[in-house]
Amino acid sequence: MKFAIVLVACLLAFAYANEEADVLKEFSEVNAEDFKYALELSNSIKAQQEGHLEADKENWVVKGEYEFDTKDGKHVKVTYTADDHGYHPTVQQ
């Protein structure tokens, strides 16, 4: 459930911050034990995430990435995993 909340929060933040951006690509598939989504906007923002419920049916394992250009023109890409041990990002600039 925590990951669903984070997912919705991220999507709302992207939408709010980019009111003038057009959606170029969008994909989502949500099932009881796994999910995938991808989003690409016309202002160079891209995000994708996928996750699955572990065999114990209590813990999710999620991996994904998002990228964007900062206001000063730098490109930032964050790749991450999240599991019962926490959120583990890697930032590339």
Automatic annotation (TrEMBL):
Domain of life: Eukaryota
Pfam families noted in UniProt: Chitin_bind_4
An MF annotation (GO) of this entry: structural constituent of cuticle
Keywords: Cuticle, Signal
InterPro entries reported for this sequence: CHIT_BIND_RR_consensus (IPR031311), Insect_cuticle (IPR000618)
Transmembrane portions of the chain: none
PROSITE patterns: CHIT_BIND_RR_1, CHIT_BIND_RR_2
Signal sequence, start to end: 1-17
Entry protein name: Larval cuticle protein 9
